[in-house]
Amino acid sequence: MDVDRERLREDIEENAEFGRIETDSGRGRTVLTGTEANREAREHLVERLEDAGLDVRIDAVGNVAGRWTPESADPEAAPVAAGSHLDSVPEGGIFDGPLGVYAALEAVRAMQDAGVEPTRPVEVVSFTEEEGQRFASGLLGSSVAVGERTVEEALALEADDGTTLGEALEAMGFRGEGLLDAGEWDGWLELHVEQSERLESADVPVGVVTAITGITHCEATVRGEANHAGATPMDDRTDALAAASEFVLDVERAANEVVAESSDTAVGTVGSFDVRPNATNVVPGAVEMGVDVRDVEYDSMETVVSRARESLDRLEGERGVETEFARPFDLEPTPMSDRVRQSAHDAGERAGIETMDLHSGAAHDTMHVAEKTDAGLLFAPSRDGISHNPKEWTDWDDCATATRVLAGALADLGGA
Amino acid sequence: MDVDRERLREDIEENAEFGRIETDSGRGRTVLTGTEANREAREHLVERLEDAGLDVRIDAVGNVAGRWTPESADPEAAPVAAGSHLDSVPEGGIFDGPLGVYAALEAVRAMQDAGVEPTRPVEVVSFTEEEGQRFASGLLGSSVAVGERTVEEALALEADDGTTLGEALEAMGFRGEGLLDAGEWDGWLELHVEQSERLESADVPVGVVTAITGITHCEATVRGEANHAGATPMDDRTDALAAASEFVLDVERAANEVVAESSDTAVGTVGSFDVRPNATNVVPGAVEMGVDVRDVEYDSMETVVSRARESLDRLEGERGVETEFARPFDLEPTPMSDRVRQSAHDAGERAGIETMDLHSGAAHDTMHVAEKTDAGLLFAPSRDGISHNPKEWTDWDDCATATRVLAGALADLGGA
After folding, report:
1. Do A203 and A267 belong together in one domain?
2. Cβ atoms within 10 Å, residue A331
3. Cα-to-chain-centroid distance, residue B388
4. Is A382 in the same domain as A353?
5. Residues on chain B touching A265 (C-beta within 8 angstroms)
6. Short-list B51, B79, B78, B46, CA closest to B63
7. What is the mean pLDDT of residues B139-147?
């Protein structure tokens, strides 16, 4: 079974026209949920699904699904599904999301062309607002498809301009009926760009994800005393920035120690950092920080978080600052299905394509789907690991190669 | 010679009505150059100067001077001058500036009441925009009075709303003629609130400043690589925030070392700190910092600055970041006149008021005046060292006590 590299390329390039951004260094797009660019991208997908003979439906939160039920398949059998998302971050890349949607479609077309006869229907899926740039914090459509959020809650979500998701979908003509239910699928596969450099470094074209890391977001606040930078002697200061700087280095050290001691996939990041009053001639009075901790092992996430708390306790004692620590977001790691992973490795082997195990440090709709059915995630190489940026790039050959593995795995999971 | 505590208090309290702010914790005011509050404060001062029989003139940049030429004085003799400023920071205190202006006026009235007979005229001065909140970065009026800036340059300075200083003065009726020339004064004294806790801690009512620290402002930039906080392994990061955190601690350490080794008045502060892109889930790509270094010894300022540069060099080598360092502002320390200081100490001793030497870490118009004539600076205690804040407070007894020392010193310097 072979995939048509040029057909896949055309689909992704045509999709890249919607919300197109041309920069010196690459090709990007801005496709936020409910915008004209999003409507065009959705309508084009529906057209392409129908061109391939798929039955298209739009659910109540705008998730799009196209089902192929060949004569070989039992229409009542639980389908195997694959897909990703069409929305982007502002000034994002052209592959993050669309590759997974159009690769799933190309996989179906490849099976059709090769006369593959699955015994289950195959479903191509595009979830609403994976990137969470307008209505939610991310993974919106899949959260409804797994019952984490009700349709009513989702439709009531408001953008900054007061528009609800319901209104935005209605305006695009993409507020459908019923609900895509991930629990009805027999299995699921998503192909996505890696967003790291491990495949590129190893010169391996396809990654098979073992687990998606858990994610903890913490908010740490350090309060000292804002004071005149000239008139306050060094020994009379409670400098919130100096204390917060120690915290940043403690979090980095904690993550490095966990990497060295127990789990080399652990990461800890202080990503946001706001200083008040933030004037050159004032000793900083307060710093608010956002901390991101991830790993495939929840225990090692806990270790980093508890060392971050210990750092704040130490700073209270040593520097006289007041501190606060909150953990508003905490998601455990999501292991991928062994059965689905094996299908992917086998498909690679059959096609003579090298595959390698790796983890995903980024969140994907597959995290949600995995709560309801056997789920897998494949990666294609990202040049220099860059994503969420017009510089994001995956070679067309790599797109096609990863799609061949996806198609092979879907055929296998579909009972062909 | 005694000063009238209640007359001084009434002057400062009446002045505090202009731009008044009432807060739970104190009384403040917002008096920016060219505002209605500034016009009212200026008109009230002119009235009070004239009430005391002083000849008032307004110069081309709105500096206000009231001259007392008693019969005992040679009208052609170089006057001795004293004063401060009436403008405030947004939501500033009621003493910072006005104490020095109205204490100078009260000193003249006290000399008049006591029949003191100076042989030189005595001039009460209020400089335009010391705080630098609207047209310049600070010390505006005194910069013109010492020839650091021409009248034309000053009048062309623009506020954010496009108004020029010339237009603002014109609108208030305070665009006068001629120029206050600090070089024509035989000596100068400014009374100001301390903005630190040294007098309060020592329980001494009057400070005699030995030197105003020099001030260096540096801009340090650290550039790493912004990257996905989940998908970027710890050993594959160039985290600009972690590197910048080391820099903050290096600057703090350098200042502490200089304090321990050579000059206990040295201070070094990273006060502003801006992280990009500043999102919890993104490894920081760049940090821009503003560094403030001050001391009464220029050598020790140099030591702190050179250790800050060394820190950046080290971070380039150890963390692979790119760095930039600029020093857009650099002012050497300003020693106060021994003659004027001695007059102040003597005045304290004559009146049975304890005085102590200390330095000023904050900038004052006196820094400029000292370029042209013998200048001195007196401090009154600041409760908890707080200033630029409605909580700023100096007890009325302390205001009067410091004014007695000011009056005694002015009488002495005026040849009485």
Report:
1. no
2. 16
3. 11
4. yes
5. 233
6. B46
7. 96
